[in-house]
């Protein structure tokens, strides 16, 4: 044989041949286990091929015959899209054909779809319509070790479904770390959990023969329920380096470390873990600026961001090989910790923090806060450097601080607002929440607070039963319960078209106004003011949307001149249409007024309805949903929420940032540094709180 393999030249550089992935040699065994047992737990290093290969193996082995679908769930939307695009490419189809993805408000699947990537939350939602998830022959719960809120709830629901479909449904749980036994034990039936009698039983010759063959051995751990399979991918050693003294500003330290590596260490790409978009944008910019001062003949650095909210094209850059003589530096959120594998990384820089949700049941406020990572996370992050050869990991913290980190991260179910989850479980017919099989039980304070909120919203009655139609409809709408309530009360305030727009706009999570470079910041602020409405941010959003559909959509120049994000606003149009379809399915007519198409100058809307102006109607309607997010402005300009304690600041992007107000309701809370900001804030009257949420304010 020639030592030059011609066919190798024809493998596109992007594709490492799938047959070389560690998972390839486990293919037969994997398929055998999946065929034989209801539950298979797959443990393996990141990058071994679990997410991209298993669904393809299953499809080829016939699990999609008779029109069934293979579902692969992801805790993050970005991961679902990125991975679907990759698998479609490997299969050689367009995304949305044989391979597709489905995330909230974006369904890229068709009747041809056989492999479907979706968020765990969305699969739960599908169970509302198809309680046994009967379209699926195999459901793979990916990244289960991350223990996202929806993953945990999904596992409980799947356990119930499996009891009803023991013969035709297969469940695969993939996990990057060793929580495998916990997952398997969770699915085991009572009989499998019974300790086996230790008395030696008499065996016939026949039984001995069948035992020595490779048939299922029921007294192995997992009994008849399932098995654990490990794909021990090869890992190279990673040198871990710590700081001697803590870093004051880890973003700056990360940037310095990048240049240290770049100037002193051999070739190889760098992966930097930061906590969020703002930090990442700052770091990317700092690298670009300082790179210009490097020696002109030096190798170049190419900083790239990776976080949710980037466009698909932008996300794809991180997978492309860097041009010659260029070192890629990827600044990423936790996405790159396990969900996404980037080849060619030799250096990892770990800031030691991650943004985590934390819900305080006393104040009813959920924040996303930068929190120290766990040891498990730190190990996982370091491992990203040792995939192709020995690498290095720079921890931007001291060794003693590493030792003081918690072993694992607290599962989300123990630190989240559970109202959306309880509403969904109730809608699935699971009334006794206390008896639901949770992998880890949520603290009762969280459960009580959630039930209290759902009751005040009118979704549950005094027996904690779902109300009809309000409760069932709230569960079906793809927005959180508070916004769902607003949508459903909007007809009685004659402002449904407006609330639909507000619901769509707030689903975008910011980035409606954009600037491309610092010089445009001023222009952006001017634009923001142009759309501002005295009443607050919600009506401002409405003004922006109106302007977009009347002018911006047709004249791209208009968006540019007004610093509007064309892509985000187009998404709002699509989300709005989807929400409208939900309402129409409930038989609710959305009477679009002419104001949305004949108001070219995006004037604020002082149209009057029944004596009250439209603005007031909208603000009252918002209060019916967001009463639990009420706050009062203090003389110093900060806010206090109703429960007292928490000091809240109006977000710099909010109209209330430096204006006077009395009482307000807000959509969400964001935490930056050590300040808690409220975003999307609207003025209300104190009296409305008692008018629309008497129970809630009686309870307080
Ligand atoms: O799920 P797991 O971490 O086990 O691995 P995977 O995501 O299936 O990735 C298998 C291989 O595909 C890795 O070597 C990745 O580098 C590659 N891959 C890629 O190049 N681009 C993607 N968008 C996804 C995976
Ligand atoms: Mg994976």
From TrEMBL:
Q: What is its EC number?
A: 3.6.4.13
Q: Provide GO CC annotations from the record.
A: catalytic step 2 spliceosome
Q: What class of enzyme is it?
A: hydrolase
The record places domain Helicase ATP-binding at 31-196
Q: Which residues form the Helicase C-terminal domain?
A: 237-429
KW Endoplasmic reticulum (keyword) present: no
Record key words, sorted: ATP-binding, Hydrolase, Nucleotide-binding
In which domain of life is the source organism classified? Eukaryota
**InterPro entries documented for this protein:** AAA_22, DEAD-box_helicase_OB_fold, DNA/RNA_helicase_DEAH_CS, HA2_WH, Helicase-assoc_dom, Helicase_ATP-bd, Helicase_C-like, P-loop_NTPase
Protein name as annotated: RNA helicase
């Amino acid at each position: 044989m020639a030592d030059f393999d011609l066919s190798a030249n024809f493998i596109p550089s992007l594709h490492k041949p799938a047959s070389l992935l560690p998972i390839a040699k486990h293919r037969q065994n994997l398929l055998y286990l999946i065929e034989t047992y209801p539950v298979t737990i797959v443990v393996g290093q990141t990058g071994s091929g679990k997410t991209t290969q298993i669904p393809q193996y299953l499809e080829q082995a016939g699990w999609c015959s008779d029109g069934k679908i293979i579902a692969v769930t992801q805790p993050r939307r970005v991961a679902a899209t990125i991975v679907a695009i990759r698998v479609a490419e490997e299969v050689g189809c367009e995304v949305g054909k044989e391979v597709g993805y489905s995330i909230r408000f974006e369904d890229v699947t068709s009747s041809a779809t056989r492999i479907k990537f979706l968020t765990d939350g969305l699969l739960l939602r599908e169970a509302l319509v198809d309680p046994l998830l009967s379209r699926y022959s195999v459901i793979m719960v990916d990244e289960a070790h991350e223990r996202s809120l929806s993953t945990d709830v999904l596992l409980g629901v799947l356990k119930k479904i499996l009891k009803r479909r023991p013969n035709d449904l297969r469940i695969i749980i993939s996990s990057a770390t060793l929580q495998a036994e916990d997952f398997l034990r969770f699915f085991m039936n009572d009989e499998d959990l019974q300790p086996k009698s230790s008395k030696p039983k008499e065996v016939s010759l026949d039984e001995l023969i069948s035992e020595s063959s490779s048939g299922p051995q029921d007294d192995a751990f997992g009994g008849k329920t399932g098995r654990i399979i490990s794909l021990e991918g090869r890992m190279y050693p990673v040198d871990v380096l710590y700081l001697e003294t803590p870093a004051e500003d880890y973003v700056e330290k990360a940037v310095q470390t990048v240049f240290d590596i770049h100037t002193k260490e051999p070739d190889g790409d760098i992966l930097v873990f930061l906590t969020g978009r703002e930090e990442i944008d700052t770091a990317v910019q700092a690298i670009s600026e300082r790179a210009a001062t490097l020696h002109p003949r030096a190798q170049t650095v190419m900083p790239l961001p990776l976080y949710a909210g980037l466009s698909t094209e932008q996300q794809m850059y991180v997978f492309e090989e860097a041009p010659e003589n260029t070192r890629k530096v990827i600044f990423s959120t936790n996405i790159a910790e396990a969900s996404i594998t980037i080849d060619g990384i030799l250096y990892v820089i770990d800031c030691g923090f991650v943004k985590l949700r934390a819900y305080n049941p006393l104040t009813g406020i959920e924040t996303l806060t930068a929190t120290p990572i766990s040891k498990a996370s730190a190990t996982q992050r370091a491992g990203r450097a040792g995939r192709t050869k020995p690498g290095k990991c720079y921890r931007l913290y001291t060794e003693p601080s590493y030792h003081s980190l918690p072993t694992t991260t607290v599962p989300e179910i123990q630190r989240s607002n559970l109202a959306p989850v309880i509403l969904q479980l109730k809608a699935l017919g699971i009334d006794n929440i206390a008896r639901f099989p949770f992998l880890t039980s949520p603290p009762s304070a969280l459960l009580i607070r959630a039930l209290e909120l759902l009751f005040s919203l009118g979704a549950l009655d005094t027996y904690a039963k779902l109300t009809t139609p309000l409760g069932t409809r709230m569960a079906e709408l793809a927005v959180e319960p508070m916004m769902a309530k607003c949508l459903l009360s909007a007809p009685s305030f004659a402002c449904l078209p407006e609330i639909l727009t507000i619901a769509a706009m707030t689903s975008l999570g910011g980035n409606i106004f954009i600037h491309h470079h610092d010089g445009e910041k001023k222009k952006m602020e001017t634009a923001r003011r142009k759309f501002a409405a005295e009443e607050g941010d919600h009506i401002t959003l409405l003004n922006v949307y109106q302007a977009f559909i009347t002018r911006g959509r047709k004249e791209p120049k208009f968006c540019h001149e007004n610093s509007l994000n064309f892509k985000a606003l187009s998404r709002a149009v699509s989300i709005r249409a989807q929400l409208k379809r939900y309402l129409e399915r409930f038989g609710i007519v959305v009477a679009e007024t002419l104001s949305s198409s004949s108001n070219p100058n995006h004037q604020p809307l002082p149209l009057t309805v029944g004596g009250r102006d439209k603005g007031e109607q909208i603000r009252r309607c918002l209060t019916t949903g967001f009463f639990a997010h009420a706050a009062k402005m203090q003389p110093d300009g900060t806010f206090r929420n109703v429960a007292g304690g928490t000091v809240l600041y109006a977000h710099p992007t909010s109209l209330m940032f430096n204006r006077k107000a009395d009482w307000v309701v807000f959509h969400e809370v964001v935490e930056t540094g050590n300040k808690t900001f409220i975003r999307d804030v609207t003025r209300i009257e104190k009296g409305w709180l008692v008018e629309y949420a008497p129970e809630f304010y009686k309870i307080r």
